[in-house]
Amino acid sequence: MFLLSHHPPEEYDRCYRVGGLHFCARCLGTYPVMFAAIAAQFWAGAPLELPWDVPVGLALVAPATLDWAWGRRQPHRFSNAWRSFTGVLLGLGLARSLFIHLQRPLPPVLLAQLSLVTAVALAVIFMTYLRR
Questions:
Q1: Is 53 exposed, middle or buried (0-12, 13-18, 19+ CB in 10 A)?
Q2: Which of 9, 91, 94, 129 is 20 to 30 Å from the Cα of 33, by its Cα?
Q3: Taking the complete model, does pTM exceed 0.85, yes or no?
Q4: CA–CA gap between residue 130 and residue 73 (Å, rounded)
Q5: Does residue 62 lie within any of the structural domains?
Q6: What values do phi and psi take at 102, rounded to 5?
Q7: What total number of domains does the chain contain?
Q8: Which residues contact 99 (CB under 8 A, 6 or more apart)?
Q9: How much is the average pLDDT of 36-62?
Q10: Distances 55 to 7, 50, 51, 62 between C-alpha atoms, Å
């Protein structure tokens, strides 16, 4: 049985285990931080768009994205603490872009993050296809 984990049994080393439950290490860092940071921005009345949203948004999303890509090639590399840390950064980056998106659809920061993730995912898919 697993909770908040999308990993098959051969990838359970990417999860924290509590009793019989498995919690994806990166997701455990991402989702609570993302929801809390979105709520905090609404509560604080954060500005909608800042000049550094795109570079900071990309910098926060990049570690988790690149770690995921590297993990496709060497699945047992790095630790769950690292995955959780990159998940926290991912949660912060997504919180900012989604906060803006909820008020002004498709802001530049969200489109930039989407482009980065898509480019990395396509590269991983292409390299996987070439290896077969």
A1: buried
A2: 9
A3: yes
A4: 13
A5: yes
A6: -65, -20
A7: 1
A8: 37, 38, 41, 42, 46
A9: 97
A10: 31, 10, 9, 10
